[in-house]
Predict the structure.
Amino acid sequence: MVRELEAFAPQNPRYQYPIQCEIEEDDSVNAYATAVFNKEDEKAKPQAKMVIFTGLVDFVKADQRIIRAVVAHEISHLSDGHVYSSVPRAEDLSQFWNRAQETEADTSGAILLQRAGYSKKDMVDMLLKLEEMRGRKGGGWFERLTGTHPDPKARAARISDDPAVLRSLLAFDAGLAFMDRRDFGGAVYAFDKAATLEPKLREAVINAAQSNLMQYYDELSSKLRERWFRVDFGPILKDPGVGTSKDDMVTDQNRRRYAEVITRLNEASKKLPGNARIAELMAIAQVLEPDGNANAVLKGAAWLADQASRAKDISTKMRYANNAAVGYHRLNQLQKAYEAIINAQQGNRTYNASLAENLGRLQVKGRSKELEALAVDVMYTWLKNSPKESPNWAVVHANYQAGCKSLNIKAQEIDAPPMYLTSGISINIGDKMLSALMAYDDAVASFGNPDARVRFDDRYPDVMEVRWQAGAIRAYTQDDQLVRVTSYVPGSTVVIRPTDESVRRSMTLRVGMTKAEFNAILPIEIGEETELSDMGKVENWLYFSPLSLGVLFDGDKVKALTITPVSPR
């Protein structure tokens, strides 16, 4: 294959040809191009070489079409001069460069396949095979989409004759990235876009409705949410396939948001009649009715309780029962709330964090030793998995100790985990939002045409910096998508939330805040001095890697905030 394709590939003058090829015994699903220097002759050009691991051959079941596409991609890295090519010092720009080179090798490789008489669809299929290998379990969706290699679907879309479905799946995954960062408004935007690009992607319609509901819930006052039982909204679809509420805690904005949720759920129900997930979200929305309308809350709670009694899957049963208890709790029917929770937990060892927290908040006297022991076990599990910053940690801990005392057993020492943070994926600038993963056209729709669009290298025309408001707002784009967003506008904010959903507070970083104010939210000492790009030049920022967040200080004040991916070199 190397010899066949090499005949149609331009030879790069930096390297010696013909290309050497090795098959290496290694279980890794990988291949790479390199150039080997001649130790005896320092002036000689390095020898062009490519290596394929046996793990890749095994993974694709020796499919010659896929292997040939890999070969074409690696030969193109050599032809395009990517091996040992110079890269920018700025770490973010270096990462964007690497991504651009991968995309260029895909395009060149597809052309190479066509020159040799094969279909460029082989390259598309190879990239989608990489997507299959990555799977869709776990989180880290922002990192998946912004890593050193572009998302395989994005790469495939660039060379596909019909990219709409791939683009819709990319928007879907962007929605998952926003959900990872608990940016529900951004998630609604991304899932809506996915559904628009591909109307058959019903999971996007459902996820958009769920994100809208979670956004409404997230915007309720913290006092109100602490007063209500904790909701379990259920998993977001990843495979595209004590007392009652008080009116003075609910704002008109909450009511408007709730009305949007109901409208969206009704529309989703029309598009997908009989869909069980939409029916569940509607029932959750009813138990979360902002003013505690008894008819609505009872209707939702009754539906959820009925579904809990029918459910065969234990995790689903517990979710339904917990959310029914949320409704009963709002109606002050505490015995019914307790019975729904304890009945669902009895007889199984499955852990549901929302159910465990709600059970721990209920003070129940006179229950059997068996049920007391069960409650103590559930509370202990929740306490050791939840940070002490959780608003109900002290209440659950007190009830846990009381339960241990009634059982005449010693309460265990609990080493609660630290509170981990997830960065916002967006910068709020006035009443507008600029997000990494946002489409360039959507940014223009919000902020207007930019003052300037500057390319860094003519070979990679899609990698550029765009500026608004005389450079006070900046973004890097790649493949018509924002990959870095920056604001120098005073008052611009990035919202940070704990990853643990039981900790219902947000922390806001703001351009113009003092170092002391910043340090009270995010300890400065955990940041690292990192070289980021400023119009291609190097600028030193304080970078918080787990949050993809950069901060630029000017004396005692925050001068700018940026969201940008930087992977370790």
